[in-house]
Sequence to fold (595 residues):
Amino acid sequence: MEAEGRVVARRIGAGTKSEHDAVVLVTYDHEYKLRRQGGNPFVDPEMSKLVGKRIRATGVVDSDQLIMSNWEELD
Amino acid sequence: MGKLILTNRAALQRKYGSQMSRIDAAVAALIQSDSRNGIETKVIAVDSPQAMRPFGPAVKEPADQRQNKAAVDAVDRELDPDYILLLGSIDVIPHQELSNPLYRKGGDDDRVVPSDLPYSCEEGWSSEPKDFTAVTRVVGRLPDICGATNPGYLIKLLKNASRARALSPAVFRNYFGITAEIWKTSTMLSLEAVFGSSTDLQQIPPRKFRWSPTLLERRAHFINCHGSPSSYQFFGQPKSGAQQYPVSHDGTYIPGKITSGTVVAAECCYGAQLFDPNPTKMASAGLCNVYLGNGAHGFFGSSTIAYGPDITNDWADNICQYFWREILQGASLGSAVLRARQNYVKERSKLDPVDQKTLAQFNLLGDPSIHPVRVPVSDTAVLHTKGIGQANAHSLSLAVGRSDRRRSMALTGMAISQSTGVAVPTARRTGVRVSSALQSLARRAHIEKPEMRAYDIDEPVRKPASAAVNNKHLAPPAKERIHLIMGTGRGHRAQMPQIIAIVAKEENGQIVNYRTGYSR
Fold:
């Protein structure tokens, strides 16, 4: 799938064994936790670099995570 | 009847095409092996109208959960098997997706809890986990890889099951136990409860995932780490609570290093999630698949986000402990799961929302008839059986009285359920006094912006008992409610802000106890 939106940092998984600070893509109708194919799903410096930017991402969605195979910065 | 292998032949055919004959041969070998062990095994394709004719409607759409649940129930009713083996992953026979009583956007994001629990219960189809507290059937799943086209993996799993033999208890004395450092205290309690010692616990950090062969080759594995959806790794975290998640276990590292007969209990979020690794071109399938593909006989883990406190034991800790205790006492993999679920319900008597999710999310991957641990049993069966090799004596002895044991476990499951209440959301207002107590709990735990949810207790309908029992004077039940407080806070140990969940019990307008789960 393809999704476009702004990237923000946010705490997710609140109150669970997998709670952590995550990088989230906010689109016009949905929010996806961003994860890079092959990257650490909890902390990935490459993902942190995207915070504050608008991106268009391509990948697969599982449990509200967008596992990205590709992305481009739009601004 | 001994063991039922249920599968969807059309779904398998769609994946493996002309190579189905190889799977058929492996299934036939398993049936022969079972027969030598005193287990009569039958295969039924739930999608075959002919095979299903004596029982009920065949499954028309492989992904239809209602149809699959109805088919399993219909066959179970007629044949009353000691074991049910679901053959294939969730694209062959789907999990039943139950609603998540803890769903909260930005918190517990699991909209549903994929589960095999409903297949273990007599209750008809439902999407509510509270409807599946009477656990009576011995069920396990031998999964292939989602989306696979090469049947080699599934054939390997069938062969492993055919060759399974119970091993000496001594083999399971030394465990491979790993934990995120932040949950060290909780995991130590679990290991001590199961294995009597926690001195060999490996913590990540400081340890890393390249475990020595001497650790990985141990047959008892207990894992309490972070997990993530569609991932072939587990992760640690330092005790400081810092947001660092070093890899603790890796599906690309362990192949060839696991010993045949290994059994795993993993508390990790998504530890037993079955997913297709192909769309994201993953380097490996999920760890549960990797374990089974490398000779492990059983993997007990969660399909979704799991729960547990950091310095005590609860929820995921408990159900994994119950499973391992049964295994070490000689139970089959399937019986261990059945009893673990029954014990989980029995020990609580009221199932709060976290309990309901925990009960639903832990599934057994593996042939449920395998007994990992050999225990002394009567050899009467062997004396009366001709031409049986010594290697199968233990299995044959276990066959004696198996149906009685199943009947007893089924009755136990129903009895436990009939004395267990479940929490159901309520719109009724919380009294001022209780509300004030809850706010106080939230303040004491330093929870910022607490979200409160209230639940009534749905008490079971008791069946008529004997006159003597009916005449016994019992105190009227207290007016009970469960309250869930979730929110962010700053914990007593973590440096980072964290989320805290408190489950509080109200009786007659007072909070009488509570359980706290600090975020991890």
Chain B touches chain A through 45 residues (CB under 8 Å). Residues 491-497 of chain B have pLDDT under 50 and may be disordered. The first strand of chain B starts at residue 3 and ends at 7. Residues 95 and 115 of chain B are 5 Å apart (CA to CA).
